Amino acid sequence: MVWFGGWIVLNSLSRSTQFDPFPFTFLTLVVSLEAIFLSTFILISQNHETRLTKRRNHLDLQIIMLAEQESTKTLELLQMIAAKVGSSPTTRKPKRCSNRSNPASWSSRSCPQPATIQKQSSQTERNRPIDPRFYSESIARCL
């Protein structure tokens, strides 16, 4: 703003230093060129942001697909457990443990204690497939 005001004042007041007469044609040219360069830089920035957004969306898609594969494997494991126990996951609902909030009332016939499951599952290696026999014993107590 100061630049444009100075340009107009310099060209309006003194006739000896006047390099752009009243319609300020040269000032209009400078402002138009500035607008062209600014719009070019903005378009370049938006193009770069668009490429970054596409890469992020592709990565999100890959993550979602991996999560879906893991969910599918978990469902297959659940079906194997249900088959091992002799239950159909669609026809029989598991019983809820009424005594889960009171650890003193946990017994061998109730649901497995979370510490027991955590201890046993931490001993398994991550790369080794999960043995469904381990889980069928724990879940069978809740059925």
Query: What is the H/E order?
Result: HHHH
What is the strand tally?
0
Q: Any idea what the shape is?
A: rod-shaped
| Structural classification | mainly alpha
How are the SSEs placed, and which strands pair?
Elements: H1 2-13, H2 25-85, H3 114-123, H4 132-140
Helix pairs in contact: 2-4
Your description of this structure?
This protein is mainly α. Helix content is 64%, strand content 0%. The longest helix is centred in the middle third of the chain and has 61 residues, at 25-85. The relative contact order is 0.07. Residues 112-126 have low confidence and may be disordered.
For the structure shown, list the relevant keywords.
rod-shaped, single chain
Overview in brief:
With 143 residues, this protein is mainly alpha-helical. It is built from four helices and no strands.
